[in-house]
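Q: Hi! New to this. If I give you a protein sequence and the SMILES for S-adenosylmethionine, can you show me the bound structure?
A: Yes, paste them in.
Q: Okay, here:
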Amino acid sequence: MRGVTTALIYGEFAAREAAGESPAYENLAVAVSRDAHLIGLLDTLPPAKRQPNLLFAAGRFLGAPVTDPPAFLEFAAANWERIAHEIRRRATQTNEPARCALLLPLLAALPQPLALLEVGASAGLNLFPDRYAYRYGDHVLGDGGPLLDCALTGIDPPSRLPEVVWRAGLDLNPLDVTDPGDTAWLQALIWPEQDDRRERQRAAARVAAADPPLLVRGDLVDDLPALAAKAPAEATLVVFHTSVLYQVPADRRRAFTDLVRTMRAHWIAVENPTVLDHAGLPNPPDERLHNVLALDGRPLAWARPHGEALSWFGDRP
Ligand SMILES: C[S@@+](CC[C@H](N)C(=O)[O-])C[C@H]1O[C@@H](n2cnc3c(N)ncnc32)[C@H](O)[C@@H]1O
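A: Thanks. Here is the predicted structure of the protein with S-adenosylmethionine bound:
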């Protein structure tokens, strides 16, 4: 039954995740689900390593033709050892700087200056919300780095950028924006049709590479207090995370939320509604996937996963 399960995962990915977002990955996932040889090879990997995003990113990283399913299957069979090597040593660590547009309304409203501590930071691209430019409808703010577009409803757009005096990230596997292998992997994780996201990530990586943030290898529970202790006492400490907790087991998620509530810090979360227990959420704006933006455990807005829209329903910042 093992092969059946992996084939089903690829079929589900095609129908639920790639459909409407990436015709290339939808076609590719269907083709993989029907290819007994590749399914057999995937089943030699640990279960967590069999997922479509890892296989496809490893393929892209190695130059596989991901828009041509028969050629991809041929490439995968001929280069399996190289693909398996990349899958084993890498993880889905997509770093999306446009999520800063979701954080900005809260960051701009907190007492300045700020000390930013991001858990699950990947390469740390979300540690530079003060160095990017933003467009909320007609309202443009900032003039550096990538221009981040966000459709904001329910509140006025922020009127200032935050003043950041300290920034640090914690990750099980921090990526280095000055390392060509790491940046190539970050680019490979973005789906084939999403050239705008690739360009945005490149622009953000240039900002980060000019002044690399402190990134610490560690766990978001075990290693958070020691890193937080390094923040300057005169700044407002903000612990934040975006699209991280779905990768963390439920008991460790609870340990993290218990810990962060005891810290002398503000806590901003942008996470899938299934991973944090928010009581009384209103209905999301539409049937597409939305995450929840929360401050200090209070849900405030629905957020599209890549930062493209923010629909405010809670107290004004
Ligand atoms: C999907 S990425 C999101 C990266 C970034 N927050 C963003 O939104 O662009 C999730 C990151 O969380 C990290 N991560 C997962 N579990 C973690 C843990 N227990 N402690 C620290 N980092 C973790 C992963 O290594 C990965 O880099």
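A: Residues 2-18 form the longest helix (17 residues). Let me know if you'd like me to explain how to read the tokens.
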